[in-house]
Amino acid sequence: MRQLPEKFTARMRRELGDEFPAFLASYEEPPKRGLRVNTLKNEPEEFLRVSPWALEPTGLLEEGFVVKGGEGFGRHPYHAAGLFYMQEPSAMSAVAAAPVDESGLRVLDLCAAPGGKTGGVAARMRGEGMLIANEIVPKRARLLAQNVERLGITNAAVICERPDSIARALPEFFDIVMVDAPCSGEGMFRKDETAVMEWSPEHVAACAERQKLILQSAAECVRPGGCIVYSTCTFSREENEGVIEDLLVGHEDFSAEHMERLYPHTSCGEGHFVCRLRRSGHPGGRERYKKFPARCDAASFKLFSEFLGSTFENDLIEPHSGRFHERGGVLRLIPTGLPEAVLGLHPVACGVELGELKKGRFEPAHTFCMAALGQKFRHMLEYEPGDRRLAAFLAGNTIPCPEDWRGWCTVCVKAGERSYPVGLGKAVDGVMKNHIPKGLYIN
Questions:
Q1: Distance between CA 412 and CA 128 in Å, rounded?
Q2: How far is CA 422 from CA 116, 388, 390, in A?
Q3: What's the pTM value of the predicted model, to 2 decimals?
Q4: Which of 141, 228, 269, 309 could be stapled to 160 by a disulfide with Cβ–Cβ 3.0 to 4.6 Å?
Q5: Which one, of 366, 382, 377, lies nearest residue 82 by Cα?
Q6: In angstroms, what CA-CA distances link 188 with 27, 33, 212, 266, 409?
Q7: 6-279 homologous superfamily
């Protein structure tokens, strides 16, 4: 069994009482892995029919499963296609606690990287409303943006900013604020030796102080009548109930309406804490925020329209939706209602990058290929997951295609009766040239 910090086990013994032996025994078991089916692209019953791994329901989310054995998840073509996201099973409890059952919601994920909760909430929003996902560390923000792209999320913006700066820029703007706070990581002990080595009572106390500041910013961001979903992957009362109580002392308009603790001996995963806080009152005043500017000149849009007509069998992007934005030759589809203030919050990605206008032609972006926008390519190469040609393309190589094909095409992986894009190619003289970004190659 992994050696746990003595002060940690002493504290858990006091807190758990008769349950402590079962809690301690759980550390003799291997950590559990979870998989969340991305319902923006496929439904759980569809994925279960094609999954190469044995899955068991978590009981937390209909689309959430515990993986029984297996390997190579991140290298599988279904992962590249965005059909699933690997997420620690008990962490799905935060997504389950988020009330995203209304349309047109404005949601902020304040501590979002690498994107598990962002992806889970976005899938339940079904492309409606607006989601802003924030990560303060630039490298992690870029990883977050890649996951948003892979999952086909079309109504999100990824920013890289301090929580207090967001609160100043967008006070009382959001219906829901997700706060998966950085913590001491006690729920990671079973699978992460580093978390064990870095643990100390002083580290717990420092995390709690930081969490209080983050939660204060979240309280400033949420509108009257809205809610905060606060979560951690740690067990200390100091970082969980203590942080919640600290906020409630200074904010009489907030109340806790849902709270749960998951431990490795009582849940399907490594353990989690979740609390949903509701702010009293009625929404109002959000109309004062200026919307993100929508602009695209006629010549640029003509090139884009010509690309759509030559590449797709249908045209489901509404050309007069008022959501197109062009800057520096890059054309994007911006989420409806996205505030202009986002421009001052170090945006990493906004909406769907459709492509780039270059010397009288339009070159589509990988993001456009991955987005669930309803387009059907005229030419698609469709392969079973184990096909060597698909593996070669995902590794960045060219592959053969019909001699009479010309222009932009997509390469897809088959999953049952459906096929899903993994990347763009350009057909020239029987060769499909590869346009997957180099950083996404799978070797």
A1: 26
A2: 20, 14, 9
A3: 0.95
A4: 141
A5: 366
A6: 11, 12, 21, 15, 43
A7: Vaccinia Virus protein VP39 (3.40.50.150)
- Residue 209 CB partners (closer than 8 Å, separation 6+): none
Establish whether domains 6-279 and 378-443 are of one fold: no
User: For residue 131, what are its two tokens?
Assistant: 């989601």
Q: What is the CATH number of domain 378-443?
A: 2.30.130.60
Beta bridge partners of residue 423, listed in sequence order = 411
Structure tokens of 325? 């934005």
Per-residue tokens: 406 = 């010309």
Q: How confident is the chain (443 residues) per 10-residue block, as mean pLDDT?
A: 89 97 94 96 97 96 95 96 97 97 93 98 94 98 97 96 98 97 96 93 98 98 97 98 96 97 95 97 74 84 89 64 80 91 95 92 94 81 98 98 95 95 96 96 93
> Biggest alpha carbon distance in the chain?
73
| CA 159 and chain centroid, separation | 13
Backbone angle region of 134, left / alpha / beta, with phi > 0 → left and psi within -120 to 50 → alpha: beta
CB 189 within 8 A of CB 164: no
CA distance 171 to 223: 8
Residue count (the chain): 443
Catalytic residue ranges = 233
